[in-house]
Write a structure and sequence with these properties.
Pfam families: FBA_1. InterPro entries: F-box-assoc_dom_typ1, F-box-assoc_interact_dom, F-box-like_dom_sf, SCF_F-box_component. There is one protein chain. By secondary structure, the chain is mainly beta. It has 2 domains: about 60 residues, no CATH class; about 325 residues, Kelch-type beta propeller (Neuraminidase, 6 Propeller). Helix content is about 10%, strand content about 45%. It is built from 4 helices and 27 strands. Strands 14, 15, 16, 17 and 18 form a 5-stranded antiparallel beta sheet that branches. A 4-stranded antiparallel beta sheet has the order 3-2-1-27, with no helix packed on it. Strands 4-5-6-7 form a 4-stranded antiparallel beta sheet, with no helix packed on it. The longest helix has 13 residues. The chain is globular.
Length: about 400
């Protein structure tokens, strides 16, 4: 009897109740949670447990990420209109004057990426199809200084006709203390066509894409030695291109049968890692559905890479978070919001679960994931992008 009591006591001592386990596990990053599935079978299905999911969601939203320290929000309404405001005061909107570095009569500048890099924004001049026409400029809104990036002198190695350049990413290489700009030089046969039924994306039937990189420190361009068998999807929405944790991220398209993947470019190693999108993470899609028909949006949500999917005729949005780059199974569906009436598309994310959408009438609405409240802002326009901006009195000219 004493032996039985001793064994029972030992089991109790080694037992962790679900409430305590959930409390501990909910504070871990997704990458760790996915790996802990091998420790206990039930942990593989943690996100199917509504109680755990609720705890994890609250921790995810409330976490004070250093990514947002001393930041404000930028809203690009058109290629000429940019304004700044804080999360605490959506009414206090300040209009910013975009530079006109090329002295154009009708300048058309768009912001690349979802935020600033040490106070610096990368802008690109677009043609009528919203592609880059190879003119880029670095701009610090705080100091109002800018630097025009020289055009790439590189000649195509392909027999295809060079059609356009796609701006892909701008970021900082902390090892070489260098700012880098990545573009895709695209060569095509045939006429371009809209992808996803939206003018936000354009693709071609036959293509070749050479990747080029600009170094601010050397003030020069060079080709990236990568075996590229896919085409980057171009979007005029800045939040579709991210810079997170020393890597630039964008969608790329491998072909009609292969669909879309997330491409992640390491600014130090200059290598590309691809992460497929599981069909199950997309809004209302099963394995028999053509996943490429689903609109998707890429953004930074509280410091993490997030994918938002929805149907064009459905205003319910699914939000999945990427736990580990290169791991298809690490995408985790974390939030479902809506239906939200009269919403056209998501345009970006702010701090602590703030999401911004454009309505069909052009007005901007703010949705808070924590309170589930939606508020219409007194702002109207084309509203292409919400960006995170951190003021810094940095000097753009780093050329040695």
């Amino acid at each position: 009897m004493e032996k039985y009591a001793s064994v029972t006591k030992e089991k109790v001592k080694n037992y962790i109740c679900d409430d305590l386990a959930f409390c501990i596990l909910s504070k871990l990053p997704l990458k760790s949670l996915k790996r802990f599935g091998c420790v206990r079978k039930s942990w593989v299905f943690l996100f199917e447990n509504h109680k755990f999911l609720s705890i994890f969601q609250n921790n995810f939203i409330s976490y004070d990420h250093s990514y947002y320290d001393d930041t404000s929000l930028l809203l690009q309404l058109t290629d000429k209109d940019l304004c700044s405001f804080s999360r605490d005061s959506f009414e206090d909107v300040v209009k910013l004057d975009l530079p006109n570095p090329f002295q154009d009569e009708d300048p058309s500048l768009w912001i690349l990426d979802s935020g600033s890099i040490t106070g610096i924004l990368c802008l690109y001049h677009s043609d009528k199809r919203f592609f880059s026409d190879k003119r880029f400029v670095l701009w610090n809104p705080t100091t109002e200084e800018f630097k025009i990036i020289p055009e790439s002198p590189l000649e195509p190695v392909s027999s295809y006709v060079r059609d356009h350049d796609i701006p892909l990413g701008f970021g900082y290489d902390h090892v070489k203390n260098d700012y880098k700009l990545i573009t895709g030089a695209c060569f095509f046969y045939g006429d371009y066509q809209y992808y996803d039924g939206s003018p936000d994306y354009v693709c071609y039937p036959e293509f070749v894409c050479d990747y080029e990189i600009y170094s601010l420190r050397s003030n020069s361009w060079r080709k990236i030695d990568e075996d590229v068998s896919f085409i980057p999807l171009h979007s005029r929405v800045a939040s579709q291109r991210l810079h997170v944790n020393g890597m630039c991220h964008w969608w790329h398209f491998k072909g009609v049968l292969d669909g879309r993947d997330l491409a992640s470019f390491d600014l130090v190693t200059e290598k590309i890692i691809t992460t497929p999108i599981p069909v199950g993470t997309l809004q209302g899609v099963d394995d028999d559905f053509k996943a490429d028909d689903i609109p998707i949006s890429l953004m930074v949500l509280n410091g993490s890479i997030a994918l938002i999917s929805w149907f064009l005729d459905n205003t319910t949005f699914n939000i999945s978070i990427l736990g580990e780059i290169g791991k298809k199974e690490s995408w985790t569906k974390l939030f479902t919001i809506g239906p939200l009436s009269d919403i056209r598309l998501p345009i970006g994310a702010g701090k602590k679960g703030d999401l911004f959408f454009q309505k069909k009438d052009g007005k901007i609405v703010w949705f808070n994931l924590s309170t589930q409240l939606i508020e219409e802002l007194d702002i109207k326009g084309n509203a292409f992008s919400i960006l995170i901006y951190k003021k810094k009195f940095s000097i753009i000219n780093l050329i040695s």
